[in-house]
């Protein structure tokens, strides 16, 4: 019912705007000048945030009223987008989301995923804007993107897709893969990770990465982020906001900048920079991090992700706590993949502990699986007595309040796939999906996103829309 109410409100706003525009068109020149000033004042004052947002979502629809309004007021698509991103943050959404590839978003199968959101408690989609190959999935107005030919147009009409999703009350997050960018690295080798002889570093999959110490890389990522925000995405999410974990990284020459900053410092600084840029536009920022770095100092130093420091600047932090990603003995569990509830509950309990300022462990974890798109991390073992395991069992996680300097809400990625490569794995179906979601709630958090690389989601693990509280 909540989503239906959003749609009804949007349609009412469009009707009101259309009638107002027709009235203004028939007034005198003086009245027209007054109307222009009033319209500009509304956009600046923020009195009609929801109207502007819904109007942007309805641009170029089949509605004669919307088309007529645009023609008579002179507001084209670009102007409407610019007005939207200058508004304050929209009303906070309690995200219950799914991941959608750019390739999927550009097909008719996207309608099936929208229908899934309509039928269930889901309300959010995380859609690729720049994917794991470094390709931008729609033709955006970016000189840098066009210069290197980064566009691979999976989505021919991104404004239209966003409009359709908004009509269904869907919150949209733009996923931008950050420093794993083989396309940029191959086309701008001066920005790639290289050894001292200038040879490009490649991970075990043969893919090149860009250098997180290069400010031009930062600016490229933020240019894409700003474009995604201006076209209508509600939030920007950086994935692979880290260094590669492959053994060959020991030969990489990061440049003189690395003498002054370690990996955690530079990733945190990029987080601060990105947050400032996007917050100036009124756009929230989230980032994906390894689940194991929440309280593992060693693993954090390898990938450059400091959970506590990043959470001070992000609006949302999304640890990838897939049970398949924890090795035998992690979190005090023999086979974490076989215990989805306990794995999520214990990892989220660890999150609450760390953000409450109770510190991180010196040990590092064994990661049995991969990150969201397939790369393993350090592969070492952790003591069963780690604070992330049984030693925390006596504490109620809801009693662990984040320190005041923590800005980010925690929104974990959950596993909606069966990890057949894990010894002792179990099949993930409705019960396993629901168990993970319940564990998030029991740990005192309210938001989550499901990951399935093929975008095949288990509806039986989701509540029907009418049951969603």
Automatic annotation (TrEMBL):
Keywords: Signal. Gene3D superfamilies: Glycosidases. Residues 1-25 form the signal peptide. It comes from the Bacteria. Residues 46-87, 365-398 are annotated as: Disordered. InterPro entries: DUF4015 (IPR025275), GH (IPR017853). Residues 53-70 have a biased composition (Basic and acidic residues). Residues 368-391 have a biased composition (Low complexity). Residues 97-358, 404-457 form the DUF4015 domain. SUPFAM superfamilies: (Trans)glycosidases. This is DUF4015 domain-containing protein.
């Amino acid at each position: 019912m909540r989503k239906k109410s959003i749609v009804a409100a949007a349609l009412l706003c469009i009707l009101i705007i259309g009638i107002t525009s027709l009235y203004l068109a028939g007034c005198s020149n003086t009245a027209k000048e007054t109307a222009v000033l009033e319209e500009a004042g509304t956009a600046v004052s923020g009195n009609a945030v929801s109207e502007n947002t819904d109007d942007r979502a309805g641009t170029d629809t089949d509605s004669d009223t919307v088309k007529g309004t645009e023609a008579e007021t002179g507001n084209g698509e670009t102007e409407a987008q610019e007005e939207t991103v200058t508004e304050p943050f929209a009303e906070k959404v309690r995200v219950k989301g799914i991941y959608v590839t750019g390739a999927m978003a550009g097909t008719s199968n996207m309608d099936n995923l929208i229908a899934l959101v309509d039928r269930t408690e889901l309300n959010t989609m995380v859609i690729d804007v720049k994917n794991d190959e470094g390709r931008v999935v729609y033709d955006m107005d970016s000189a840098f993107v066009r210069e290197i030919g980064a566009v691979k147009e999976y989505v021919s009409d991104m404004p239209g897709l966003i409009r359709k999703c908004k009509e269904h009350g869907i919150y949209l997050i733009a996923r931008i893969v950050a420093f794993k960018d083989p396309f940029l690295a191959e086309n701008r080798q001066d920005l790639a990770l290289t050894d001292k002889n200038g040879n490009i570093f490649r991970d075990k999959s043969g893919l090149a990465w860009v250098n997180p110490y290069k400010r031009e890389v930062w600016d490229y990522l933020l240019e894409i982020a700003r474009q995604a925000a201006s076209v209508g995405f509600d939030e920007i999410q950086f994935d692979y906001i880290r260094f590669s974990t492959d053994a060959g990284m020991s030969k990489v020459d990061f440049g003189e900048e690395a003498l002054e900053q370690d990996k955690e410092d530079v990733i945190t600084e990029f987080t601060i920079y990105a947050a400032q840029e996007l917050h100036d536009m009124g756009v929230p920022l989230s980032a994906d991090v390894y689940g194991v770095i929440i309280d593992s100092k060693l693993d954090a130093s390898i990938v450059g992700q400091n959970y506590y420091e990043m959470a001070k600047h992000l609006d949302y932090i999304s640890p990838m706590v897939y049970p398949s990603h924890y090795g035998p003995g992690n979190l005090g569990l023999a086979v974490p993949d076989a215990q989805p509830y306990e794995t999520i509950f214990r990892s989220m309990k660890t999150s609450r502990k760390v953000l409450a300022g109770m510190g991180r462990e010196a040990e590092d974890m064994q990661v049995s699986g991969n990150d969201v798109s397939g790369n393993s991390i350090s592969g070492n073992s952790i003591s069963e007595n780690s604070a992330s395991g049984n030693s925390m069992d006596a504490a109620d996680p809801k009693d662990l309040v984040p320190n005041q300097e923590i800005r980010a809400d925690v929104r974990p990625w959950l596993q909606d796939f069966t990890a057949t490569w894990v010894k002792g794995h179990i099949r993930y179906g409705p019960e396993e999906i629901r168990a993970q979601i319940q564990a998030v709630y029991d740990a005192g958090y309210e938001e989550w996103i499901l990951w399935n690389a093929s975008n095949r989601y288990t509806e039986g693990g989701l509540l029907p829309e009418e049951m969603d509280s």
